[in-house]
Design brief:
It contains eleven helices and nine strands. The protein is globular. With 317 residues, the chain is of the alpha/beta class.
């Protein structure tokens, strides 16, 4: 499969072929993960370190399961009690880890660009599990796989991304990926939650849900990231739900077979109606979680192939 990157730091610099390679391999891992015996020895003998400087449930668990199913030795570092809390710099931490000779380093960090910096200081492959407002590449890839499996294709669809666009690295990565695959992208939300310069991204922007959802194939809701807000971006949770929360009435403006997505964790009754989130005929939220493990397995395998090839003079063994 055509994938030459040394790290997976974002979607912006991936080619369309890179994206398709990850999704095709991930699709194979979906089949493996549904079998009674879910394990492979693809990463046997390799060490994977998960460094999460921000709290995470889904992403960290997904990466851990992915690594273990591929046979890697997986270590989760407790960053809350790490030497960084004692004053050690991120670069010093990277150098210390590098001396331990890991093969795969999975990093989530609250500051944009921190993961890129780490990748320049270590010899192993680095996977970005979310950095600040920058990117969350594996979330966009799992969203893409979910859409492709539900719709039978990943091109020339009309896709609405709704809610807190300004603070969302998920939205940013999805805009890059879905744009590369020739989809029509609509962003819906209050003007206070739209980033500056958004008109340069080749998207349509709406502040009215009914208008923005008209005839779309996919509705992707986003979490209100209140922890990243330093002011009053919305009038109240109740008003936000009334205007921009997804319910059956608003969804009726989309195509009859439109699917509903959410990266989680969900704020029910704020971003999305709880009954709609659980509707097995429209919601693919649980499928997104399942696809996450498969996509992360695929990404780590492809990076491990490149790592082994570079360690063996360019020959993949």
């Amino acid at each position: 499969m055509a994938f030459s990157a040394r790290h997976l730091l974002g979607i912006e610099n991936l080619s369309r072929n890179d994206i398709v390679s990850i999704l095709d391999l991930a699709n194979q891992y979906v089949t493996l993960n549904r079998q009674a015996h879910k394990h492979s020895d693809t990463l046997a003998g390799l060490t994977q370190i998960n460094m999460f400087f921000e709290n995470s449930t889904r992403t960290q668990a997904s990466f851990e399961i992915a690594g273990k199913r591929l046979g890697a030795d997986v270590m989760n570092m407790a960053m809350g009690s790490s030497s960084i809390k004692k004053g050690e710099t991120l670069i010093d931490t990277a150098l210390t880890l590098n001396a331990m000779n890991p093969d795969l380093l999975v990093v989530r960090h609250p500051h944009s660009g921190a993961v890129d910096l780490l990748s320049e200081k270590v010899k192993c492959a680095v996977l970005n599990a979310g950095d600040g407002r920058h990117e969350h590449p594996t979330q966009a890839l799992l969203d893409a796989l979910t859409i492709r499996r539900a719709k039978g294709r990943l091109h020339r669809l009309s896709i609405a991304i709704c809610g807190d666009i300004a603070h969302s690295r998920v939205a940013r990565s999805n805009i890059f990926l879905l744009g590369k695959m020739e989809n029509r992208i609509r962003l819906i939300g209050p003007k206070t939650l739209m980033p500056s310069g958004i008109d340069q991204f080749g998207v349509e922007v709406f502040d009215d849900m009914n208008e923005g959802l008209r005839d779309v194939d996919v509705v992707m809701m986003l979490r209100l990231q209140t922890e990243r807000m330093d002011g009053a971006f919305i009038p109240s949770s109740r008003e936000y739900y009334h205007r921009w929360g997804l319910n059956a009435q608003k969804l009726a403006h989309a195509k009859p077979d439109a699917i509903v997505m959410h990266p989680g964790p969900m704020n029910r009754g704020v971003e999305i109606d709880g009954d709609l989130a659980d509707d097995i005929h429209r919601s693919v939220i649980q499928e997104q979680v399942e696809m996450g493990v498969a996509v992360r397995m695929a990404a780590m395998e492809l990076l491990a192939r490149n790592l082994r090839a570079s360690n063996n003079g360019g020959i993949d063994v």
